[in-house]
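Session log. Operator J.P. requested a structure for one protein chain; no other inputs attached. Running the standard single-chain path with token output.
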Amino acid sequence: MKTIPNLKNYQKTYNDFNWGKAAKKFWGANKKINLTTKAIDEPSLGKFKNKTALFWESGETTRQLTFFEIYLLANQFGNFLKSLGVKKGDRVFFFLPRIPDIYWGFLGALKIGAVGGTLFPAFGSQALLDRLGNSEAKVLITNKELYQRIQPIEKKLPNLKKIVLVENLNKTLSHFPVSLKPTLVDPNDPAFMLYTSATGNTPVCGIVVPHKGFLQQHLTAKWTLDLHENDIYWCTADPGWVTGVVYGLLAPWSLGVSQIVFEGRFEAKKWYQLIEKYQVSVLYTAPTALRMLEKEEKIIRDFDLSSLRQINSVGEALTPASIKWVNKTFKLPIYDTWWQTETGAMILANYPSLPIKIGSMGRPIPGIKLAIVDDRGKSLPTEQIGHLAIKPPWPSMMIDVWQNKKRYNSYFKNGWFYSGDKASCDQDGYFWFSGRADDIIKTSGERVAPFDIESSLSDHPAVLEAGVIGKPDKTRGEIIKAFVVLKPKHKPSKELKERLQTHVKKNLAGHAYPREIDFVKNLPKNRSGKIVRRILKAKELNLPLGDTSTLID
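Structure written below.
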């Protein structure tokens, strides 16, 4: 498998890498920048001008757009926004399904110095009010169907000066010039803001990422996705989320890569058809999607998936069971990645040029210093679970939590950025995910990571996936409770519960088995595919559910 030349020797690259030198090489001597010059202008005006940038499919409808066509549409849209009075720093939000308009529209907004934002199309009126109200968005791009959810809250959004319906946009844009010079901004100026999943009763958090972060986004697409200009790439994430924006819109095009976009509900057969039809070579998806594919693995034999050369994962940690299934089914390794909206780009990854340790988060990208630290910022020994912390700054690091400086400052303590995740690091420098800091279970004096138990349960042949929480107990402080989704043809029973408990005792630890197990049809997940354990816990203990706007159901 071909790898990026400067990561053939990971350790040498990691030791020698310097963000300052990389920025000088990437941006040149320019003190003012705009990420769209790299994301679309240079590819479109160079050798990729007539190459297909976007293969789009929805039902029976398909569309193809070249790099140059997207460039022209982005320019016209930017000029259109200018005619509405949009200026540098104004927020322009997109509330759309996965249609081409959101791709060139987002680029056009950033090109004039506006701050782009996306909203997941399943959001209801309250979730929209929270985000549009907090961001003080000036312009919203939506369609007639989704506008019905905006109408009840429109009068509560005094800063929203213009709502644009895409059904009228094509005709409108034809009246605007196709040339547009990018508005150059300070590297630290905001490029886009995206809202993270709120926890409990925490207000929505608008995470602001700067233009200079595109250097890291571009390089990580090269290093970890191993993208080459002859690849056909599919990032299955919706552009309503950070993965869909960074690695499904911006970074791939800067590498001249053609990508496909599917606007439709998940269906295993359709996914396999798309991979075969477009000869997808690199897939970036979520563990949840892989488990859904596993449910219908028998139909794989009906398709030629030999074009695939690399599969990457994001959204939640990969269980060993999922890794083994991908290895067996696709005859390919799968490369897990770890990052957050707050980090703006990948931080940890597995690389084609390094051995994979099954279940590991991988190793840091060049330029990033990570450590496992305690509450005071002291580095912990290998194999010990602690806070996964990053040494600031790095190019794509968030520069603000919109209108919530207290929340922004809470991430930074003792000279570190505290990610909110717990992990450990082994003697080879590989990191291992344990769970969110507030998910760690303390039972009979022992600290247990929910993910370890979930991985052990998922390794049982009857289990498709599992979610684990700590449940208050007078004797032990907490006991471990598991919620288990079974694979087809397996039925819940008392005997199966006992077998699962024995399986965990034998394969993980005698004290780390679930004393209670509920069999469920599905687990609560957010739109990134992460299991939301706080919902499991809230339901179990009859507590308020908190913010549910980002849940799938």
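Operator note: The longest helix spans residues 67-83.
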